[in-house]
Design goal:
479 residues, alpha/beta, 8-stranded parallel beta barrel, two-stranded antiparallel sheet, 9% strand, binds flavin mononucleotide, binds iron/sulfur cluster
């Protein structure tokens, strides 16, 4: 077990641990308020809109919409929390599926005409909470994340109903997919209809008042998988132009048909090979026979446990050229290499014990974003995976924004346990220690076991639910 962040009692101890791990990361001595000139409180420009600060709330779904894709009280509560956080960029809220078979779970929010009122209610919940907490919404930018879950679609039950870009030798094996099954591979014709659905969903988002849509291309979902479809024949595979054709077809059509709507992309900047699910320390699936590795995007083909950002940078330049206002960078996938995607000291139930100090995972993402920023300086970038920094999150966040590593700091899990974090930092220069996410991963373990997501350990709202006991039983069984 690695030293927990809460055991590193002060900034020098935290810096010493980073040095011990050989990690380069700037860390400020104290949390700066807006009044004292925190770099996180500086406004910035996104697509001609002045965004009030550098905090961003990442999209986080809750597996808690109603069965028809409309928001439940839990969904609305999460969006209220996003709004009251004080962050001025709400990146997508949560993944909303553009068609029913694209849902990652039967309770995923839908971005379809039947849920138009639901999408409006989510936006309004966020705006109203922001208005109450911050006075007005003049400098708040809110988008909706649009998705098709592809290989990880579970629209009807816990059972996977995959729709894949290509047969991936390791992921097929990990998730029980027959490598000869052609019926689950998208045809080029199917894709034309899918493009229509993304464009229609973007139109809905625009009609109810979202200022941008995020065309989701991360975490192993469909548009991310296409980026590594080198073995796919035809127009939507092969070279980078082919592999990114689906993403760009969607972006171009949205721009043409909804010219006032801004477009962002959440991208897994790099990927590693999938890891085996186990109770042991995480091990990559056997890949020796697959070298040079051609089944990842941003993966080093000769060492697929390292990144190679050559194509990532190329794609970012193309995205910028196509008028995308910003890219929110993440990496990997929570389904097959969660330790790189959302570093945690306690793994989710379908994960494995961390194979590296989670700080290594945090800094890997930050360094990758920094390299992208250096390569494409004009493209606004949001960074991910800050939650594991815990008590030292603001000290690092303000230092990296000041140093120009990234333009905006995205918050994921910590917002589930502690939604007021951005305001507490900018107004008081303090954090409430008891609310800091300690990466217990219950918000991932719960949905992996057919329960709604939420911060069961720290949020009294979830502690009071019957699922709390159910989750405890699941975790006991895993011990
Ligand atoms: C419960 C949960 C739900 C998530 N849902 C989404 C989602 O809908 N869309 C998305 O792009 N990322 C999603 N993520 C990933 C987060 O946005 C974020 O990238 C990840 O948690 C790492 O950031 P963090 O270290 O601040 O938590 C989810 C993460 C969690 C824990
Ligand atoms: S359940 Fe709560 S403490 Fe655990 S990882 Fe999720 S947000 Fe953090």
């Amino acid at each position: 077990m690695y030293p927990k962040i809460a055991q590193l009692k002060n900034i020098p101890a935290f810096r010493a641990r980073l040095a011990e791990l050989g990690l380069e990361l700037p860390v400020d001595d104290e949390i700066l308020t807006a009044e004292r000139g925190s770099p996180l409180s500086a406004p910035w420009d996104l697509g001609g809109f002045r965004v009030g600060n550098r905090w961003c709330i990442h999209p986080m779904e809750g597996w808690d919409a109603e069965r028809d894709g409309s928001p439940s009280p839990h969904t609305l509560r999460r969006w209220r929390h996003f709004g009251l956080s004080g962050a001025k960029l709400i990146w997508g809220g949560e993944a909303a599926a553009v068609q029913e078979d694209g849902r990652a779970n039967p309770n995923q929010t839908l971005a379809t005409p039947a849920n138009k009122a639901g999408l409006a209610a989510l936006l309004e919940a966020c705006l109203a909470a922001h208005r109450d907490a911050c006075g007005n919404t003049d400098d708040l930018l809110v988008g909706l994340q649009l998705t098709h879950s592809g290989r990880f679609a579970r629209p009807n039950s816990k059972k996977l109903e995959p729709r894949i870009a290509y047969h991936h030798p390791l992921l097929d094996a990990k998730f029980g997919i027959d490598p000869a099954d052609r019926s689950i591979v998208w045809t080029d014709d199917d894709l034309q209809r899918l493009i229509d659905r993304f464009v229609a969903a973007a139109g809905l988002a625009a009609a109810v008042g979202y200022q941008f849509v995020d065309v989701k291309a991360c975490h192993g979902y469909l548009l991310h998988e296409f980026l590594s479809a080198r073995t796919r024949p035809g127009r939507f595979g092969g070279d980078l132009a082919g592999r990114s054709r689906l993403l760009f077809s969607i972006i171009d059509r949205i721009r043409a048909e909804h010219p006032k709507l801004m477009i962002g992309v959440r991208l897994s900047a790099f990927d590693f090979v999938p890891y085996e699910t186990s109770r042991e320390i995480g091990k990559p699936m056997e890949f020796a026979g697959l070298l040079p590795y051609e089944h990842g995007f941003g993966t080093n083909p000769t060492d697929p446990l390292a990144y190679d950002l050559t194509e990532t940078v190329e794609l970012l330049k193309l995205l910028q050229g196509r008028g995308v206002i910003a890219v929110n960078l993440s990496c990997g996938s929570p389904y097959y290499n969660p330790h790189i995607q959302r570093p945690a000291i306690f793994p989710p139930s379908d994960g494995y014990q961390p194979p590296e100090d989670p700080l290594v995972g945090v800094v890997r993402q930050m360094q990758a974003v920094r390299a992208c920023k250096q390569a494409v300086p004009e493209l606004p970038l949001v960074g991910s995976a800050y939650s594991y920094l815990q008590d030292y999150l603001p000290h690092v966040a303000q230092a990296v924004v000041r140093a120009g590593w990234v333009d905006s700091v995205g918050l994921g899990r910590v917002v589930l346990s502690y939604p007021e974090l951005p305001r507490d930092c900018s107004e008081r220069g303090e954090m409430a220690r008891k609310k800091i996410c300690r990466t217990f991963s219950d918000c991932t373990t719960a949905p992996r076991n057919a329960m709604i997501s939420g911060c069961y350990p720290l949020d009294p709202y979830y502690k009071a639910m019957p699922e709390f006991e159910q989750l405890r039983t699941v975790k006991e069984r895993l011990k």
